[in-house]
Amino acid sequence: MSAAHLPPAPGDYDTSHSTTVRKYNRTYGLVPPAVESLDVQASRCLKQLERRPQSIDKYLYLSSLRSTNVHLFYRLVSQHIKDMAPLIYTPTVGDGCLQWSHNYVQPEGLYISYSDRGHIASVLHNWPQVNVEITVVTDGSRILGLGDLGINGMGIPVGKLSLYVACAGIRPEATLPLMLDLGTGNKSLREDPLYMGSRREKVSAQEEKEFLDELMVALTEKWPGIVIQFEDFKNPFPALETYGGKYTCFNDDIQGTGAVVLAGIISAVKRTGVPVKDQRAVFFGAGSAGVGVAKQIVEYFMREGLTEDEARRCFWLVDTKGLVTNDRGDKLAEHKIYFSRDDNAGKQYKTLEEVVDHVRPTILMGLSTIGGAFTPDMLTKMGQWNEHPIIFPLSNPSANSECTFEDALKHTNYKALFASGSPFASIEHDGKLETPGQGNNMYVFPGIGLGTILSKATTITQSMIYASATSLSTSLHPSEVSQGWLYPELARIRDVSVIVAMGVIKAAQEAGVDREQSIKSMGNEELEKWVRSKMYDPTTETQRVEEEVQGLTDPSKWGGNRGSHL
Length: 566
Ligand SMILES: NC(=O)C1=CN([C@@H]2O[C@H](COP(=O)(O)OP(=O)(O)OC[C@H]3O[C@@H](n4cnc5c(N)ncnc54)[C@H](O)[C@@H]3O)[C@@H](O)[C@H]2O)C=CC1
Ligand SMILES: CC(=O)C(=O)O
Ligand SMILES: [Mg+2]
Known about the structure:
- By secondary structure, the protein is an alpha/beta fold.
- It contains 25 helices and 14 strands.
- The strands form 3 sheets. The protein has a 7-stranded mixed beta sheet with strand order 8-7-6-9-10-11-14, sandwiched between helices. Strands 1-3-2-4-5 form a 5-stranded parallel beta sheet. Strands 12-13 form a two-stranded antiparallel sheet.
- The site of 1,4-dihydronicotinamide adenine dinucleotide has 26 residues, from helix 13 and helix 14.
- Pyruvic acid (PYR) binds next to helix 13.
């Protein structure tokens, strides 16, 4: 609801509002007269979606709904999350980004260009919302597995923040999608007449660092306590290193992905019955996500009794040049050195096939961006070597998945423990429905953000990230565990986010980085109730606004200023 002196906000045009609220908001007469139930509103939206066969058209319809009728959008998304997540997030958001400048109709976030350096604070001042609690920021330089999309990557902060609202109850107006227009290495975009970003080459790493230094100060001065999520940067390690212990920030691709995959791995490893010391993990892709995931699992293996060196040696990372080894002859990027092998006896393994044959892995992890990289032959061998091979093709969007759910099952004689980054449909086999896991950071980042905001944590510690993973792994209902699922039902995501947020809050308290005094001595039950009470719920928003308007007794606000023209 907008303040009395402001023009109506998008949520004010909600057709579920009573005449009284419409008069107060000055939207009376601006929307059709019927006061609609939430069910009627939802059925119209679902019909609109049905009429559009292409996912991208559904995406565009939903984007426009978010901009014009925000609470209805979130009611629809949170009540139909299984159907809506693939439309507002991966895989469809991939197309949304690829076509961003071509489809552009309305502002949905904030763009700050390299030419704004020195004045970033004044650009932030243009953001129309007063209280921002969380931002997702990208420079568009590695959007999903689609490469450098420049400012077209804005779909990712918008999509991720929509999930923060729908899945963890952050208020929509407290979110800031932020695109850093730092140029693009994508020549075809620079030459596209409809491209809406700066037509310059990507700035240098040093220029980017200086720009980020200014941005971090400006963001935290304007909104003290703001949670900053770094997303889809091509090389995000330096920023995490520089700002991690200093600001309330985290990197979703390194840490969020690490946590979500760890949660699935904890369950999967238990299912295999193979002790962690005998697990052998081949990672196809040694970038931010690959290394982030491997490091989280190292910590788990250590907690299960291995030394750090023993744990580290359970991993074989493969990049474009093959197995990452000490004597490969190229200068290894800093983040790969920790996992670089020294036991290859001078032999270099150039392809994933060679590495798989050499290692005979128990775990095959895909964070490479290369669709179909897990061949039928590799999958068949995984099935022959393991009673329950763990196969996680995690690259997004769907076309980049290293294999399909169907292939993983078919070639392993239906023994694979499977999770993918983008969703796959369930498959019927032998009269039984086989359901794939979705190992996507969407299971943890909403809860990490919520827990951080509510605990008023000054930084996001590794222990908070680890707690998000263990909390997620314990969130499965017994019926989900008995069906062999690695992740909980997506329809329960709001409840799951509460569990994750509580784990994050407790870890923040243990680390001593929390500042919310009122919850320090709360037990589990009380804390859960408190967390839920703080969450935005689009299904009760109409009622909340109704009560707020009815409760207004100040005649100058009601009869005089806002409603008198009626
Ligand atoms: N499921 C999830 O929640 C998440 C999935 N991802 C996905 O993981 C993928 C990688 O993301 P990042 O690690 O951030 O990217 P990145 O660019 O940092 O790393 C990509 C890695 O793949 C390797 N690679 C690329 N092409 C290859 C080839 N032809 N052969 C062998 N290796 C190759 C690169 O050498 C690099 O090590 C993306 O598709 C992204 O969508 C990322 C974050 C979360
Ligand atoms: C899911 C995600 O963060 C990615 O694919 O980059
Ligand atoms: Mg990402």
